[in-house]
Amino acid sequence: AQKVTQAQTEISVVEKEDVTLDCVYETRDTTYYLFWYKQPPSGELVFLIRRNSFDEQNEISGRYSWNFQKSTSSFNFTITASQVVDSAVYFCALSEAREGNNRLAFGKGNQVVVIP
Amino acid sequence: EAGVTQSPTHLIKTRGQQATLRCSPISGHTSVYWYQQALGLGLQFLLWYDEGEERNRGNFPPRFSGRQFPNYSSELNVNALELEDSALYLCASSSGLSGANVLTFGAGSRLTVL
After folding, report:
1. Interatomic CA distance for residues B95 and B93, integer angstroms
2. Of A7, A10, B77, B97, which has the maximum CB count within 10 A?
3. Which residues on adjacent β-strands are paired with residue A36?
4. Which of B41, B102, B108 lies nearest to residue A43, judging by beta carbons?
5. Measured between alpha carbons, how far is A93 from A25 in angstroms, rounded to an integer?
6. For A50-63, how does the pLDDT look when each residue is reduced to its tens digit (9 = 90+)?
7. Could you give the dihedral angle defined by the CA atoms of residues B103, A114, B112 and B71, in that order, rounded to the nearest 10 degrees?
8. What is the pLDDT of residue A115?
9. Which of B103, B104, B109, B111 would best serve as a mutation to test chain A binding (most A beta carbons within 10 A)?
10. B66 vs chain A: nearest CA distance in angstroms?
11. What percent of chain B has pLDDT over 90?
């Protein structure tokens, strides 16, 4: 069974500090997909990134960066120079690649609070 | 392009009543997913519909049911409401059946059971 663990429940940082969110996953499949979503106070989950299990290349997108390490089953997310608008709940999620099994398993989320 | 729309935004019911929540997917998306986000429990997968059929179901009792209409919109019904059903219900849509698909979420329907 697939499982996603986000250990830190709430993280507070002062504006312009960096914040890293840890995500550890479990799956028996060799092919799978990992996602990060952001949930601002409005409630709507916003897609940030998708990674497949064969692509361990790290990625940077603006102030966001992701570190995927298959050896430790981790897919961590860093916000550099945080801003107040980054305050939200961030979810890591896992989907197995088998067709017909299209359900995302989410971690419990990290509440990020950026203090001005 | 319109996103995933859900209605109602808020719904207040009492124990034992029934609740119906509605979802319209993004145009061209055939799959609709329902998730429950209850306080402290994270996002729990409820149901997945594609092309009018129920494809997968999460670990929820049968009083949680739904359907998908020919226009791909969907309805979630919760019968015999219990206090613990109070939650944000999120609908998402995608195209295709692959686990690689990105789900696009709506803003949710907040159900309060008194």
Report:
1. 7
2. B97
3. A49, A92
4. B108
5. 8
6. 988 888 778 888 99
7. -20
8. 96
9. B103
10. 16
11. 85
